[in-house]
Amino acid sequence: MPPHAADIRSPFDIHRGASAPRLAADRTPPSAETLCKWLRDMMLIREFEVRCMQAYQDKKIGGFCHIYIGQEAVAVGCVAAMKPEDPLVTAYRDHGHALARGMTPEACMSEMFGRVDGCAKGKGGSMHMFDKTHNMFGGHGIVGAQTPLGAGLAFATKYEDEVLRKGKSSRVTLCFLGDGALNQGAVHEAMNLAGLMDLPVVFVVENNGYSMGTSIHRGTTQGHDLRSKASGYGIDSAIVDGMDVLETYHGMKTVIDDARARSRPWFIDMRCYRYKGHSMSDPRKYRTRDEEDAWETGDPIGRLNKQLQKQGILSEEQAKDMLREVKNEVRACVAFADASPIPAAEELYTDVFVESWGRYTGSSKPSMLGGGTNHPSFKSIDPSTDSTEDLV
Amino acid sequence: MSALREIEYRDALREAMSEEMRRDAKVFLLGEEVAEYNGAYKVSKGMLDEFGPRRIIDTPISESGFAGLAIGAAMQGLRPIVEFMSWSFSLVAADPILNNAPKMLYMSGGQFGCPIVFRGNDGAGGQLGSTHSWCVEGMFSNVPGMKMVIPATPDDAKGLLKTAIRDDDPVFFLESERMLGLKGHVPEGDEILVPFGQARIRREGTDCTLASWGRPVHFCLEAADALAKEGISCEVIDLRSIRPLDIGSVVRSVKKTSVCVVVDQSWSFGSPGSELAAQVHRHCFDDLDNFVHRVHTADVPSPYAFNLEQEYLPNARRICEAVRAATYNA
Question: How far apart are alpha carbons B196 and B241 in whole angstroms?
Fold first, then answer.
């Protein structure tokens, strides 16, 4: 077991300043239908990731690819506690968040295949999953870089509600980061700003115990209880069991509701474990197989599956059907991605600028003639007439 | 009165921001000391009184944090103006301003743009030593997906800043502490919106084209005065924006003069000046009487001592020497 595993507090453990009102976790039980949906969503993410690993080995996916297996309950439980209009931003281990948020497996897989049907037409890749219609503000590749962005999204929703609409702040941003990101300066600057400005943002630290191959106690002070990082910025915090989707949901629902009501930031030490390596090239030599086995015994999918069967909500047969259905769906999304066309060469030069403009005429293809975007919130493409011949 | 009105460069910047903030409630200003202190250089003086603390926002000394925060706000659709007290301080925010803002539209496949302006003092000349005298245009202009603007006069400062605030892409707006007190005629209102990518001919001439931007435009004008007395007629072109670069105006001029000297306050290696020179060579290969000469700041860290710093800059004397050499008058 990693050193921090023994410290997992379950149920939900909240740490607040003495002056703050006492906060009780909202434990209204979700409906049977909702629980079954969560199980299916987690199965889908896991199966998707299994197929990603295969596709990566088949060289269908390039670059870096970070697998979310083991942490499915975090994305599913957190997203369940959000409203559709709440922004979400995360780091590079982002497939699970994208799928939980509503991106289709086809768009997500096609993106990794570098195809036009990808969420970013194949321009972002595994680490950069964006989905505007679902308020998914990316996957971000640089450790911790999304944290100031998360504060900014919360700033913007608050500004829109309070300054532009003269109303009450109504949305909460969920900003995910890894435990390794806690040692990046940008994260601390973002927490300070969020605390100062009363920003409704929840920093969810997906604490899987390792920043790449470095265990939390080798890289982070106070690794046994990360809440101390937040208390330095006057931010309320909680430890949540990210291996249990119900715990995650109840904890996050309570926290998000409070952040929404008071327009204040929160910090979550979300205890979880990634079963696979940091990325596809990681042989996991820095930890023992015993430790991995111990964590996998508490698997979030197995746990919920067992619970639903015990409660008579789902029969063994129904669970198997569900998994079969999910497998078929993921197989189909792989086939879809494989059949999706590669981006046209001209795509290289689009989406550089919102508008087509300028007359940059260097020796390569003019880089400023791209412009345009496929999103209706931006102006339409104005075909430029600039060319090198047009100079004089 | 307005037709002949003269104001300082800093006032022009303030007018641009205030007018745009009155026009669009999505525009707000944040940075160190912009509100209660009235601006470290008094650029935002009085803006807190007019717009209040929700739109004129003091930040802690935390460039990476507040630049990143502003980018997040821009992704959501607001239009932030980020003031860096000095562009030298933006280096600690390099990741958000270079890795996030200019790439967001591209890597999201066109879904999320970044309508944001980063602005502040750029360049040496105030005896601030090596760490505070950055000309960031050399490093930052290398990045696609952003626009870079560098006004030399108060009217352009206002007109270009208004355009920058209305632009849907990230704009790096480079001012100069040395020019904040510069006075000039600045019209009021929207008629002074200055489009990007349009150079301005500051002085007409026939023997040599001097192409520059930002504060060195004034060094070029000073040199052109001196050279006129020697019988060398210089045409001074102020490019005004580095991205986009109005190469067409320079080419037209060089086809007339057959001689080109590029004056750039950044270091020479991999700079906007070297890019401009390469393009002039390409487009005017058969028109040039000499290779394109370049005047940059010296290739050393910025010195503190007054005399050394003056020599470090692409000053009028060094420009005159380059023009004489390029025109075979040395």
Answer: 6
Chain B CB within 8 Å of residue A137 CB: yes
B8 is catalytic: no
Last residue of a domain, one of B168, B192, B216: B192
Identify which of A387, A381, A386, A376 has the alpha carbon closest to the alpha carbon of residue A354: A381
Sign of CA dihedral A103, A106, A111, A115: negative
CA angle, corner A228, sides to A227 and A231, nearest 5?
A: 90
Across the 392 residues of chain A, what is the mean pLDDT of every consecutive 10-residue run? 45 54 73 97 98 97 96 98 98 98 96 96 96 96 97 98 98 98 97 98 97 94 93 94 96 96 97 93 92 93 97 96 98 97 89 64 37 31 38 44
Residue B211's φ and ψ, nearest 5 degrees, are -110, 125
Residues in A 67-106 with any Cβ partner in B closer than 8 A: 87, 89
Kindly tell me if the per-residue pLDDT of B87 is higher than 80: yes
Q: For chain A, list the strands marked E by DSSP.
A: 13-15, 88-90, 136-139, 173-178, 201-207, 210-211, 214-215, 236-241, 266-271
> Quick check: is B63 catalytic?
yes
Residues A317 and A352 in one domain: no
| Whether residue B56 has pLDDT greater than 90 | yes
Active-site residue (options: B8, B19, B63, B137): B63
Helix (H, G, I), strand (E, B) or coil at B121: strand
Helix (H, G, I), strand (E, B) or coil at B241: strand
- Rounded Cα distance, B49 and B38, in Å: 10
CA distance B225 to B234: 9
Total domains in the fold of chain A: 2
CA pair distance A72, A283, nearest whole angstrom: 21
Question: Based on the domain organization, do A81 and A174 belong to the same domain?
Answer: yes
Residue A31: CB atoms within 10 A of its CB come to: 9
Give the three-class secondary structure for B57.
Answer: strand
- pLDDT for residue B51 is more than 50: yes
A162 reaches B (C-beta below 8 A): yes
Q: How many separate domains does chain B show? A: 2
Interface confidence: ipTM more than 0.85:
yes
- Length of chain A in terms of residues written: 392
Q: For residues B232 and B223, what is the distance between their CA atoms, to the nearest angstrom?
A: 10
Nearest to B133 by CA among B322, B323, B305, B280: B305
Residues of chain B with pLDDT > 70, as a percent, come to 99
Whole domain around residue B296: which residue ranges? 200-326
B267-294 per-residue burial string, b: 16 or more CB within 10 A, e: under 16:
bbeebbbbbbbebbeebbeeebeeebbb
